[in-house]
Amino acid sequence: MLRAKIAGALVIFYADKDDPYWDFLVKYATPALESDAPDFLNYDAQGKSSSGPSPKFEAWMKAHNLSPSSELFEDSFYMMPSSMLFLGWTRDARAIPLLRRGLLSPNHQIEIVAAME
After folding, report:
1. Which of 10, 25, 44, 89 has the greatest count of CB atoms below 10 A from its CB?
2. Nearest Cα residue to 95 out of 107, 86, 108, 104
3. How many domains does the chain have?
């Protein structure tokens, strides 16, 4: 994540068309854009989250032969959304199509970050 922050700053200050720092950010965000993982948390009608993985996330883990772990939660809730954040933070026009793709994610955290950026 620190490398992504640095790459984002370098894109802001030194952006050009053949930008290895931009390429790094795109590569960093690609797993989030390609992930079919739903939200880790389950939300009720009032928007409050319940503990543990959501039924959709449990079904996704089963379909992908994965066992529950704190790493899966961290990836779903923090790491993948943050990768989208760094794209938007650059305010680079090249981020727009990627952020739009983020709006289609089954992970609401990714959608939220893509919409905010």
Report:
1. 25
2. 86
3. 1
